[in-house]
Amino acid sequence: CQSVPKPESRVEVCDLNPCPPRWKVTPAGPCSSSCGLGLAVQLVTCVQILHGQEVLQEEHLCPVAEKPLTSVPCVVRTCSYEWSFSEWSECSTSCGNGIQTRQDFCLSSLTHKPVNPLFCRRFPKAIVVRGCSAGPCPEQEGPVSPGAELQPVTPATHLARAAAGTEHGHKDLDVPLPAAPREQKKPGGGEEDTAKRCFQRVCGNLFLNATGIINMTGVEGRDCTVAIGRPLREEISVTILESSLNCTAGEVLLFSGRMMWRTGCRKLPLSLINSRTNTLIVKQRVVLPGNGVILQYNSRTATKKYYQDCDQQLFGPQGEIVNPVQLPDQRQGVVCRTFITVAPRQRISIRALNTDLGPEGNHTHFNYILVRDVSTMKTVVFRGKQQFLWQSTGSQAEIEFHE
C-alpha cells in the first residue's frame, strides 16, 4: 500500500454504556470425597465493571439461564475399594407390608474380587434393608397405606426418672426390662441358683443412676458386660474397689467409650478410670469361677465439652427420634447427632416412619442421614424419601443428620 495515501489514525468512542452484569466463578474448593466421584463447591457471584472497578450486583441482574453450577463433579483419584451389593431379595410377605434385604461386600477395584470389609469401612454404604408392599391381603377391605402396620412408639426414656430414683435411694434400673422367667429350684443347687440370679441382676444391665456400686464377682459365664449412662453434659469416673482377676490365666477387664479404650488386669484395686463422655461400657472376662471385680462409679459435670448443642442422648427400650433443629446462633456446617444406648444384652432397631430430605435429597452429597453401629463402626447412609429398617449388632448406635 506504499503508493496509496495513508489515512490519519483516529480513535472513536463506540459505546458509552457500561458493560452488563455477568457471572463470575471462583476456583472450586476441595473435593468432597478423598477418592472416587465427589462434588466440589465453587462460588458464583454476579458482578459488573463500573469505572474500571468490579462491583458486586444482585443475582437477579445477571441472566438466570446462564448461571454456572455451584457444585461440580470431581475425582481426586480412583478408589482402591468400594461397596458392592447383591440383588434385592423378594418381599418377605406375600401380601401387605414386608421388607427386602440384600448382601453387601467390599470389592477391590484392581481385582474386582471381594476382600475384607474393613477395607471399605471409611466409605458410606447404601441401605441393605428396605420396605416393600405386596398389595393388600385378601381379608383387608381397603388398601393399606405404607407403614400402616407399624407399631406406635412412646417418648424416649428421660434422665429425669434417673434423678428421681436417686433422690429416693432407689438403685434399680430406670429402664423397664422384661423380667427373667422364674427357674425351678433344684435340690442341692442353692449356690448355683444364687450365681444365676447374680448374673441376671448385674450382667447385661444398663445403670442410669448418678452413682452406684456394681459387683461383678461370682457371676455365671466367662463374659459379663454392663453399661453406665448419664446426660450428655456429664462424664463418668469408675474406681475399682476389689479385684480377684487371675492375670496369668488370661482374665481381663475392658473399659470402652466414645473417646477412650482401656484394658487391664494387674494393679487394678483403687485405680481410677475416666470415661471423658456420658457413657461407659465395662466388660469382664473371667476363666476361673468366682473371680471378678467390684466397681464404684460416680458422675460429674464434664471438664470439656464433647458434644454439639443440638446433640441428643436417648436411653430406654423404645422411643421416637426427630431430626434435631439447629439453633439460630449455631454456626453453619454443624452436624447434629443422636446417641442411643441400651442395655448390653439388648439390640437396637431403627425404623424410618417418614424421611423427607427435600426435593434434592436424591442428588446432593451433602444432604443425608448417617447411622453408625458403634460396636463395628460400620456406617450406613440413607438419602431421599424412603422408609428403612436398620438393626444394630451391639447396644450403641449414633445417628448424624447432615444439612
UniProtKB/TrEMBL annotation:
It holds the Pfam family TSP1_ADAMTS. It comes from the Eukaryota. One of its GO terms (molecular function) is metalloendopeptidase activity. The keyword Secreted applies. Its main location: secreted. One of its GO terms (biological process) is extracellular matrix organization. It is found in: Secreted. Keywords: Secreted. Residues 182-193 have a biased composition (Basic and acidic residues). Residues 163-193 are annotated as: Disordered. This is ATS13 metalloproteinase.
